[in-house]
Design brief:
The complex is a heterotrimer of chains A (about 500), B (about 500) and C (about 450). Chain A has about 500 residues and is mainly beta. Chain A contains three helices and 29 strands. Among the domains of chain A are: about 90 residues, no CATH class; about 130 residues, no CATH class. In chain B, the strands form five sheets. In chain B, strands 2, 3, 5, 8, 11, 12, 13 and 14 form an eight-stranded mixed sheet that branches. Chain B has a six-stranded mixed sheet with strand order 20-17-16-23-27-26, with no helix packed on it. The termini of chain B are far apart. Chain C is mainly beta. In chain C, about 5% of the residues lie in helices and about 55% in strands. In chain C, the strands form seven sheets. In chain C, strands 6-9-4-3-12-13 form a six-stranded mixed sheet, with no helix packed on it. In chain C, strands 19-16-15-27-31-30 form a six-stranded mixed sheet, with no helix packed on it. In chain C, strands 20, 21, 24, 28, 29 and 32 form a six-stranded antiparallel sheet that branches. Classes of the chains: A mainly beta (about 500), B mainly beta (about 500), C mainly beta (about 450). Chains in contact: A-B, A-C, B-C. At the A-C interface, strand 2, strand 4, strand 6, strand 7 and strand 8 of A face helix 1, strand 10, strand 14, strand 17 and strand 18 of C. Strand 15 of chain B pairs antiparallel with strand 7 of chain C, so a sheet runs across the interface.
């Protein structure tokens, strides 16, 4: 342990010959009574809280806190007296000259004895992430979801027996903790040797050493400790709590967060979540075929009667958001054989919102779009006049015309169940849409634009924005479904210049 | 000491041997009986007057004066016999060939004995500067001003026991004394005498008339024991366009050792704080100014206080110099307010010291809205060449901008603020005096409606308008105003039409 | 020659930070307290009149070796000015009647010697400073001081040194319900003066702290001010120019007394926000979680301070640019104005100005819950505009169902929506956004008419 807390009282010169890397070994060093880690996943920041029992004398006590070779943001270190605040005061926090790996607290005490204190700081190097495994049944109507959290410690520091909490959410961090931790002390003198920060090799070396130590410890502790989380024991509960815009996942009990030794825990295990498959095609991505999505809702599970099932928080949805993470999807045949469906990243899903997982391109549903016909109508030539130079005027014609394209889309689903599809089309001009709501007022307008006639379509039609239109359909298995629509592009002032005629005429 | 006055003429040869080093120690040269320095601060020039008792023989006496390693302008050296002018005459001044750090005076005397003489010359390297320390009280209503003069001597010469006078004012100097002092001798050519290096100070009235008043400058020791010594009086006198500050008594003006003396010590000068903001320098932040008047101090009844010249204002101008301002809390703690250069302040004028940017008064200006109205198209006609006329349309319109300024003062007392805003057209101002006659005019310009501003409004020039406000402490003050830019003949040319027509 | 009296005090400069080892670090410099004077580098010495020449003959070293040490009564360092640091030291000196020479010298500390102010705070009888002298090539000066009576006098020497940096930072502790916070202002002062001070007062611009020692090169973090129960307004802000995907959560505090602040303009600095957690078992003290941090801009009195805390992932806004209602023809309004021709006739014409119409659609979804229950949130949508404009039309639609079953319904927006003109360049649409589900969401349409645009 290289985070040392050192209390030195007035006129008590401690002589300590210890290399920077070695553990600070002082008789008066209060041990950590408890540690709490709050790990964030959007940024490389972990809040560490340590509780210690500090022995103070009456008068002014000076306590040194040093953290060589760990990445702690010195500006974040806070000292809190937890009891007898009326008798014990923190006078100031002093950063010694030229160092950024130590500080001193001056504490004024009216009593002698032990006082509980809290030390809080931000460290870099510990992260967590979520990941999911989803197993669908054969006809893709139900999904078993297991959510995991994985804690990775690359900080170079072991936090044993620590309460571990994970924050789901994106905090705003204006400066990186790792940078703050490495930033040299502003008052460092140029002739001083630079402070050596741990590099990856040293970390590895250190962690290796520590690992050996802990392996030995593990052996010594025997089965009791190693048995945790294994068969026969219940997996640790992960308690979820809302906090401002975030969610706090607290892992029940205490954990040893060892350096370079990722730890994965089950955070969620939900069975028989109603699953929906949806197939989308959009011209925004340039994909030619459909993409399959699994959809389920992050809401509390209901039984067949539509009542909320009585489930523990670990076994239910809709009680906490689902953090972003990797999802691996399988589908399980009746004979319990698994098939790998796909893997993808999901976004954060709030409570009540829908989880939509991109499963990948789907070849069972085919689409064939044909431009069946095109017609040009309402061709009109209009004369325009443009000055050429001081002498000439150019008279020319430009053409207005309406070009109508007739499309046919042929969709076939090879799925055994009805397939819900969604098609988004793009048009290269401002769209005037004749959709499910009926003919628009400006349908006969003479303004340029793409006049899209989708009113013959069976499903609903939706305008997305100026250039995009969506339609929805349900495809029955093995049936051919035709969709016909037309778009009239009203083109105005289309070149080239016709009947160009140069005239010498007074202007 | 490198300057030597040689006496008698017999020593001439010897003196030449001594040459530029001039470390010759002759026993018979007359010592300085007194020295007077008149130091200018606008230019690097100091007039030195030395008073010596010269022992002359009957007949022609040759006196050598040399000044190696000093920065004396050779053309400025003057010799004056102060007594028995009817019996003793200066025949000529000779500059030895090839040298510019020595000269000889030939004196014809009808008597033998001691005669008082004055040697006057200009030297460079001695300067003086004024500086001030102002300590305001906590609420910045009173200021204690201490004015200092600081004399720097880099001339290479020690002037001990010298009467020191300083000239406040800008003299005209056509050549630098330091250059003149360093100029090599003009070869074999005779020096045309005298080339006045500085016209103004040479003709200074009063300087000669004052003569030497060196005699009673030594302090009375008995007097010292009785009461504490007051700082030396600095006597101030007007002199043509300048002011002459004379330090009471004598000073040792040592080489390379600046000396700072108190020239003024005025207590409880009524002080005013003013905060200015102008678009001329960005218009984002207020600058704080301290203001006080260089007039005689008054007591509570409005009568002039009876104060010595050192403790009063309004009796002499304040020379330009560095000002450092502090404010003093009731517990005597100081806070540094700022430091700045001030200009010369005549008697009766106001001293305005830029204290620096002030962050306690903040302003936030918002363009809340804008509107375009009265759009009109007018046809114009322009000749193109001998044959063509161009008819075209231009647009007139009014554009009204609505501004809101939010001012907040964090000062504990009322704050006087002054805001200057710039408008990019000729301003027609509607201030508190009422709507101007030409408000409804169609003429181009910026029609600034500031009539709802609570304070006074002032037109500064064609483009600038100032308004004055007193801000209450800790209150938000909103100022709303609008400006209508009447824009005429705005391009581009529309509907251009060319016609061949007789002009 | 008169007998002379020289009083001075001295310093052996101990630079704690140089050549340090672990050993020296752990021997915490408590001795600064007991041997405080050892660290002082500014020295003061008094000599009586008539000793002028003698004092000149004594080199600077000799003065330092004098052993009678009058106490430095107090030291104060004032960093409020922002550009200069003012040091004030108060000392009691024993003056002789008549002339005294007060000698002041320093080492390692970068004093602006032109700035030194000498003040007599307390003395028996009148004391006058006659002049100030600057011996060449020395970090020293001497005053000639004349006293009416012999005896002790309290003097204050004030001078400017190169600026000592004072860096503000804030810590906000938010109540669990996010209605109020405790705002603590810290100042971190770095002693770059070159001098190690003993007991002293530091005034870093905000607040005033008494410290027991302050060695050269050290930094000290001190609590400078504290505002309790500061009301906070939580705001959900969507600004497509900042982030097209996410809504941000801001806290707004107002720097005035009504809102429990307003003591001074808040300086620029980093704010770290923590939130109190609900009390849980096994936790003797309420735990706090880190909420996020932001730079606090310089905030004058009455001004609001907006702090970006983190992403509000439960509040989703999507922005689409739509055609104006009424189709392509409604994109512009032509402007017809009078035209005066040269022959005095009046007609009308269409200049190259027109009013442009833009319509935005915001798809709004709110999955925010509090203790498991869905709640409304105050959402602010920012749009950046320019020139002359008005908000022409607002339509709020409730979207029920999905896909083929989707139904749209226009609903009254007066109680939910408020459009605010901040200035010509900024508009804010404030929405009290009710909870939504997958099957119920809102579409907000805002049509903006930008007037008199040249084309």
């Amino acid at each position: 342990m290289r985070i040392g807390l050192l209390a030195v009282r007035l006129f008590l010169p401690w002589v300590l010959v210890a290399p920077a890397l070695a553990a600070v070994d002082l008789v008066t060093l209060p041990t950590r009574e408890g540690t709490q880690l709050t790990i964030y996943n959007s940024e490389d920041i972990t809040m560490v809280r340590e509780h210690r029992l500090l022995t103070v004398k009456e008068g002014v006590n000076r306590i040194q806190f040093s953290w060589a070779n760990t990445l702690i943001d010195p500006t974040s270190i806070e000292f809190r007296i937890l009891d007898k605040q009326d008798k014990v005061d923190l006078v100031d926090t002093t950063f010694p000259s030229g160092r950024n790996d130590a500080l001193q607290w001056n504490i004024k005490s009216q009593i002698a004895g032990k006082i509980p204190v809290e030390i809080r700081y931000f460290a870099s190097g510990i992260t967590w992430s979520a990941d999911y495994v989803g197993i669908a049944n054969e006809d893709e109507t139900k999904l078993n979801v297991t959510g995991y959290v994985r804690v990775t410690n690359g900080s170079g520091e072991v936090y044993d027996n620590a309460q571990t909490r994970l924050v789901v959410g994106k905090i705003n961090l204006v400066e990186k903790i790792a940078d703050l931790a490495r930033r040299p002390s502003p008052s460092r003198f140029p002739d001083e040797p630079p402070i050596v920060y741990p590099d990856a090799n040293k970390w590895r070396e250190l962690s290796h050493r520590r690992k050996e130590k802990y392996d030995a410890l593990d052996l010594a502790l025997g089965d009791e400790r190693r048995g945790e989380g294994k068969g026969g024991h219940k997996p640790k509960e992960v308690i979820k709590q809302g906090l401002s815009e975030y969610f706090l996942f607290t892992i029940d009990g205490r954990e040893d967060i060892k350096d370079k030794e990722p730890k994965r825990l089950v955070a969620l295990k939900v069975a028989e979540v109603p699953l929906e498959s949806i197939y989308k095609l959009t011209e925004r991505t340039g994909d030619q075929g459909f993409t399959k999505f699994y959809r389920f809702k992050n809401v509390k599970l209901l039984d067949e009667k539509g009542k909320e099932k009585k489930l523990s928080a670990m076994e239910n949805l809709g009680l906490s958001p689902l953090p972003n993470g990797m999802v691996r999807l399988f589908s399980e045949y009746k004979n319990k054989d698994l098939a790998y469906v796909g893997g993808t990243e999901t976004k954060y899903v709030p409570i009540g919102d829908r989880v939509e997982v991109n499963v990948g391109p789907d070849k069972d549903i085919t689409i064939c779009r044909r431009l069946k016909d095109q017609k040009i109508g309402n061709v009109v030539a209009r004369q325009y006049k443009r000055r050429l130079d001081d002498q000439f005027v150019l008279y020319f014609d430009l053409i207005d015309y309406d070009e109508t394209l007739f499309y046919e889309e042929e969709l076939i689903s090879g799925k055994p169940v009805p397939a819900k599809i969604e098609v988004e089309r793009q048009f290269d001009a401002n769209v005037v849409l004749w959709g499910s709501e009926g003919e628009p007022k400006d349908w006969t307008s003479n303004e340029p634009g793409a006049y899209v006639d989708l009113h013959a379509i069976t499903g609903r039609v939706e305008r997305v924005d100026q250039q995009h239109v969506k339609y929805f359909m349900d495809l029955s298995p093995g049936k051919k479904q035709r969709v016909e629509y037309s778009v009239t592009c009203k083109r105005r002032k289309v070149g080239p210049e016709l009947n160009a005629e140069k005239k010498r005429e007074p202007l | 000491m490198v300057k030597r006055l040689f006496w008698p003429s017999l020593s001439l040869f010897l003196a030449f041997l001594a040459s530029a080093q001039a470390a010759v120690d002759l026993g018979t040269f007359p010592t300085r009986e007194g020295t007077q320095l008149t130091i200018y601060n606008s230019e690097d020039i100091t007039m030195v007057r030395e008073y010596r008792l010269l022992t002359v023989k009957e007949g022609i006496n040759r006196i050598q004066f040399s000044w190696a390693n000093t920065l004396i302008d050779p053309t400025s050296i003057e010799f004056r016999i102060l007594d028995k002018q009817d019996k003793v005459d200066l025949v000529d001044t000779t500059f030895p060939a090839g040298r510019n750090e020595a000269l000889q005076w030939n004196i014809k005397s009808q008597i033998a004995g001691k005669i008082p003489v004055e040697i006057r010359y200009f030297t460079s390297g001695i300067t003086w500067a004024a500086d001030y320390v102002g300590v305001a009280n906590e609420d910045e209503t009173k200021l204690n001003v201490t004015g200092y003069v600081r004399v720097f001597n880099n001339s290479g010469e020690l002037y001990d026991n010298a009467q020191t006078r300083m000239v406040v004012g800008n003299i005209n100097l056509v050549e630098k004394i330091a250059d003149l002092a360093r100029r090599p001798p003009p070869g074999d050519q005779p020096v045309p005498c005298p080339a006045p290096a500085a016209s103004a100070p040479a003709k200074m009235p009063g300087a000669g008339a004052r003569g030497f008043a060196f005699s009673n400058a030594i302090l009375d020791a008995e007097q010292l024991a009785r009461k504490p010594e007051a700082p030396k009086e600095v006597v101030k006198q007007g002199l043509s366009e300048y002011f002459l500050f004379t330090i009471e008594g004598r000073e040792d003006i040592k080489d390379k050792e600046p000396k700072r003396l108190i020239a003024l010590k005025a207590a409880e000068v009524p002080l005013e704080c003013l905060y200015k903001l102008t678009d001329r320098d960005g218009g984002q932040q207020f600058t704080k100014f301290y203001r006080f008047k260089n007039i005689k101090l008054l007591d509570e009844k409005g009568k002039e206080k009876k104060l010595s010249a050192m403790e009063n204002l309004g009796l002499s101008p304040l020379p330009n110099g560095m000002v450092r301002l502090f404010s003093e809390y009731k517990n005597k703690d100081l806070a540094y307010v700022g430091g700045t250069e001030t200009k010369y302040v005549p008697i009766g004028d106001r001293v305005e010291v830029n204290v620096g940017l002030d962050k306690d008064i903040t302003i936030h200006r918002r363009l809340k809205d804008q509107q375009t109205t009265n759009v009109v198209v007018r046809q114009y006609k322009r000749r193109l060449d001998d044959n063509f006329v161009l008819y075209h349309d231009l647009i007139d319109y009014d554009e009204t901008l609505y501004f809101e300024e939010e001012l907040v003062s964090g000062k504990p007392v009322d704050a006087k603020v002054e805001l200057e805003r710039r408008f990019d057209a000729n301003v027609v101002l509607w201030g508190p005096e009422g709507q101007p006659k030409d408000w409804d005019s169609k003429a181009e310009g910026a029609y600034v409606d500031l009539h709802q501003v609570p304070g006074r409004v002032e037109r500064v020039d064609q483009n600038h308008v100032k308004y004055f406000l007193d801000l209450k402490p800790g209150k938000k003050q909103l100022v709303n105003y609008k400006v209508t830019y009447k824009r005429l003949k705005q391009g581009p040319e529309l509907n251009t039409e060319r016609k061949r027509e007789p002009l | 020659m008169e007998p002379f009296n020289i009083v001075g005090w001295t310093s052996r400069s101990v630079r704690f930070c140089r050549g340090r080892t672990w050993k020296s670090i752990l021997q915490i410099p408590e001795h600064h307290n007991s041997e405080r004077t050892n660290t002082m580098k500014t020295m003061l010495m008094i000599a009586l009149a008539g000793t002028l020449l003698l004092v000149f003959a004594i080199p600077a070293q000799a003065r330092i070796k004098l052993t009678t040490l009058p106490e430095r009564d107090s030291v104060r360092v004032d960093i409020q000015n922002g550009r200069y640091t003012l040091v004030e030291e108060e000392r009691t000196v024993n003056l002789q009647a008549s002339r005294n020479q007060v000698d002041f010298s320093w080492a390692n500390i970068n004093i602006d010697k032109e700035s030194i102010v000498f003040r007599v705070i307390k003395a028996d009888g009148e004391v006058n400073v006659l002049n100030t002298n600057y011996p060449p090539n020395e970090n020293a000066l001497y005053w000639t001081v004349s006293a009416a009576n012999a005896g002790p006098a309290v003097i204050r020497i004030s001078y400017l040194i190169g600026n000592m940096a004072a860096e503000p930072s804030y810590q906000g502790v938010v109540e669990n319900d996010e209605k109020k916070l405790l705002m603590q202002v810290y100042m971190t002062v770095t002693n770059t003066s070159g001098e190690s001070f003993g007991e002293m007062i530091v005034q870093p611009g905000v607040g005033k702290t008494s410290v027991r020692y302050f060695n050269n090169g050290e930094r000290k973090r001190m609590l400078a001010a504290k505002f309790a129960d500061v009301p906070i307004a939580k705001r959900y802000v969507f600004d497509a120019t900042v982030d097209q995907q996410r809504t941000r959560m801001y806290y707004r505090v107002i720097n005035d007394t009504e809102n429990q602040m307003g003591g001074f303009p808040l300086p620029y600095g980093k704010v770290r926000l923590f939130i109190k957690e609900p009390k849980s078992d096994g936790d003797t003290v309420r735990s706090q979680a880190f909420l996020g941090e932001d730079w606090a801009q310089y905030t004058p009195l009455f001004a609001q301070l907006d702090l970006y805390v983190g992403v509000a992932q439960d509040v989703k806004v999507e922005r689409f640019t739509m055609d104006p209602e009424g189709g392509p023809k409604a994109a512009f309004d032509e402007i017809v104005v009078p035209r005066f021709t040269i022959d005095g006739k009046e007609g009308v014409t269409k200049p190259q100005f027109r009013n442009q119409r833009t319509r935005y659609r915001y798809r709004l979804q709110n999955f925010k819950t509090e203790k498991g229950d869905p709640i409304s949130v105050p959402l602010t949508i920012k749009e950046h505009l320019d020139g002359e404009w008005i908000i022409e039309k607002v339509v709020l639609k409730e979207i029920l169902g999905e896909r083929n079953e989707q139904k749209e319904k226009e609903i009254p927006y007066a109680e939910l929506f408020n459009a605010k003109r901040i200035d010509v360049s900024n508009a804010e649409f404030e929405m009290k956004l009710p909870p939504t589900t997958i099957d119920k969401k809102y579409d907000l349409y805002v049509t903006i008419l930008k007037k008199y645009r040249r084309y």
